[in-house]
């Protein structure tokens, strides 16, 4: 059974930091591209950051220079370090796993709430 379990969300003041974690089980983590997405009410889920199985990273323009995605293949975990947080970073953050070899092998976590507010 595939599970992606996010943690690390919460309430933080503008300018603060949070680190999200996504622990994967039931998949061959090393051959999965991993991503973090954000969704706010009334809007579509949008890509925040992505890291390939080989470690290549891509970021949304709105988070470049502030967020860092990384992965630990030994722990089957992907992280999102979020610094200099802004109110517009508020949303539910979802972890995504996409298999390198099968388009249909795509999985989502349950999401973790991040709220940036004073």
Question: Could you characterize what this model shows?
Answer:
By secondary structure, the protein is an all-beta fold. It has strands at 3-7, 10-12, 18-25, 32-39, 46-51, 57-59, 67-72, 77-82, 91-99, 106-108, 112-116. A hairpin with a 6-residue loop joins strand 4 (32-39) and strand 5. The protein is globular and about 40 Å long. It starts with a strand and ends with a strand.
What's this model, at a glance?
The protein is mainly β and 118 residues long. Helices cover 0% and strands 53% of the residues. The relative contact order is 0.31.
Approximately how much helix is present in the residues?
A: under 10%
Unreliable residue stretches? none
Beta content:
over 45%
Q: In one word, what is the shape?
A: globular
Largest sheet: 7 strands, mixed
């Amino acid at each position: 059974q595939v599970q992606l379990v996010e943690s690390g969300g919460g309430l933080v003041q503008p300018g603060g930091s949070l680190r999200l974690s996504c622990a994967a089980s039931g998949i061959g983590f090393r051959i999965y591209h991993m991503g973090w997405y954000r969704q706010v009410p009334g809007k579509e889920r949008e890509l925040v950051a992505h890291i390939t199985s080989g470690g290549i990273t891509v970021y949304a323009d709105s988070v470049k220079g502030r967020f860092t995605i990384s992965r630990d293949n030994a722990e089957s975990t992907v992280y999102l370090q979020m610094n200099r947080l802004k109110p517009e970073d508020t949303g539910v953050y979802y972890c995504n796993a996409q298999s390198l070899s099968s388009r249909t092998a795509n999985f989502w976590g349950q999401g973790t709430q991040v709220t940036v507010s004073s």
